[in-house]
Task: structure prediction
Amino acid sequence: MLSYILRRIAATLPVMAIVALFVFSLLYIAPGDPAVVIAGDQASPEDVERIRQSLGLDRPFLIQFGSWVWRILHGDLGTSIFTNLPVSALIGQRLGPTLSLMTVTLLLTIVVAVPLGVVAAWKAGSLIDRVIMGFAVFGFSLPVFVVGYMLAYIFALELEWLPVQGYTPLAQGFWPWLENLILPAVALGCVYIALIARITRATMLEVLQQDYIRTARAKGLGQGGILFVHALKNAAVPIVTVIGIGIALLIGGAVVTESVFAIPGLGRLTIDAILRRDYPVIQGIVLLFSFVYVLVNLMIDVVYTLVDPRIRY
Amino acid sequence: MDRRTVLKGLAGAGGLALTGLSAPAIAQGASARTLRFVPQANLANFDPIWGTQYVVRNAAALVWDTLYGIDAQLQPQRQMVESEETTDDGKTWTFKLRPGLKFHDGEPVLAKDVVASLSRWAARDPMGLMIIAIQQELTAVDDRTFKWTLKQPFPKMLYALAKNNAPCSFIMPERIAKTDPFKQINEYVGSGPMKFAKGEWVPGAKAVFEKFADYVPRQEKSSWLAGGKQMLIDRVEWIVMPDPATAAAALQNGEVDWWENPIADLVPVLKKNKNISVDIGDPLGNIGSFRMNHLFAPFNDVRARRAVLMALNQEDYMRAIVGDDNALWKPLPGFFTPDTPVYNELGGEILKGKRDFDAAKKLLAESGYSGQPVTCLVAQDQPITKAQGDVTADLLKRLGMNVDFVATDWGTVGSRRAQKTPPGQGGWNMFHSWHAGADCITPAAYTAIRANGDKAWFGWPNSPNTEKEIAGWFDAKSVEEEKAAIGRVNKAALEDVVYAPTGFFLTYTAWRKNVSGIAKGPLPFFWGVSKSA
Result:
């Protein structure tokens, strides 16, 4: 297993190298110029050109790419064109809010979606099943920002139970931390709850038809034991796969959620960097995200071996 | 007990059990000494000379002081300077600094700091460049005195040092001010009323300013950038909110105290809230513009440009930008900010009265236009440019022009407008923008009115007559002379259609009613602002 994990981690290197080259090339040919944004609307073309030179943006593609790769190999993601701060520091500032949002969303998703899916499968065809699946369709259909605005209006503006925006680090207390994350996590989690509830239901329906389930019933096992011990464990592989894909997709969803709830996370950093053409920041974030994607996939493979002992690498 | 209290109790208890961490107790009254402000944009960098965005200038005004400050009557007033003298020939200026000025690191403000700061500023500022062009020497005479010797008089010297247009001549310690003006500083030490809390800076999300205890305000009443900058709050937190709806909700919920520029769509909601005040933020407003490329057909012919002006209806543009609120806009038969001391709309007839499409079409035909595509760059991510772009596309189509509507983002417009290649080869025919009214009072900081060909702003208008009249304004020695010169500039620039002004519009600002002392002006002034619990 250890050698498998090491091999998989080693395999991330060429993936990331290709991602790096792709992103760098894309940004190089994309329209837009950070020097124009820096210089301001009233700047003369000469000023813009001098800023471009001072940033090294007038150098040939290969020299720019080579110097960036050289820095990456030395563990340096570079310096933001706009803030003059190291990209690693900027990412470090934003990692906490995004990780917090994703963690709370993921926990909420699993805690809500899996039992909903199990119950829907158990009560397949009943009113409960229809209500749950109706909710799933609703969750799929509503964009994150619409859910976000609705939640903010109801729970922040009308009821005044929760704040509209912002982020408080965990170090300043558990409730202040959680208070800011509840609405964004629910908004972001809606679509994933819907997705995972549907997958859980579909997989469970198949498992519940198996002979060993009938045997368990014949032996007099309780419904809870059958559903959550025997059936759910055997339905777990596809559910874990979808949860894993969901983590990757959460990164995309976080971009919108962080904007709606003014959470200073990586999603907003990404948008800001793209709009300003802050190349080193975009490149650093994309590298980080691609690494996370690969890591999540690796984790899913490892989790397979835990839920299904027949799987070995 | 309400549900929130229950939730807090449950989660708080759970949190304590899980982490052992608890929320810090907030000292009583601390919230009343902290002002939470939503700025117009993200403070992505903090060098007011290197980056000339308004948001940087606004934040910098808290941290760095200036030698002179412009007041609400648009007059330069002494700020860091105690006195000044000029020789009879107007070529030598000698300035003396106020005693007791200190930087945030505790070091005194010396004349050598001023010399280094002015040198860096002048390399980036249009008026500074004019001074450099006639400069003989800028030297420190002693710790508190410096001298600027010129080869010819520059009557607008004090205005240049006081103006609020970016870049302002902020004074920095010499070691920082010696940074190449085209490279960014990374130390933010000023002598202004607030210190920048660099450790709390999260670019794109938050910037914090703390009261500078050793700041010595002038004794006069504050007026814009002039007078006594008395800080009545200890801490200002800038909270960046990219989404206007979120900012509106946060203001209604009391999570922020002041929102610099609420969008017009949300103002009615804010006005209904009994805890919120809404008023015009900057009486100098903004001037909408669309800019034509004078290098290529059809707009290299003044008749085509004038045809557009004859058909252009400013009301269409203004309603697209501000909606139905008539208090927020007015027609502008010219280029200069209305209701200012030197305003003059001489020659503005072409923009007044009923629009004459038939005459415009005739003039366009005379210019030789024969249906070639007109590349119109429209940034969709800026509501002001998007609104103007939609109106322009309709206008040009009604004139019978073949519009190549390029819907893109502001970053792309910013780089593409610098292209001097023909429109079909990566260039352009027109793009939209807007100018802060504070920059358009006179030609001093008004880059967009310049018409010196290759050296002019994008579109590269070449109008020797306009340039001659602009030079006349710089030489004017009284308000009457200035006003007459502005009229001549306006007339000449309209005759040659340097650009097309689409009207004058205002924006609101909104704040909680427990905040007082907010002054109308071209930037948010935090001195004199207080907050009750």
Observations:
- DSSP finds 13 helices and no strands in chain A.
- Residues 2-87 of chain A form one domain.
- Chain A touches chain B through 63 residues (CB under 8 Å).
- Chain A has two domains: 2-87, 97-307.
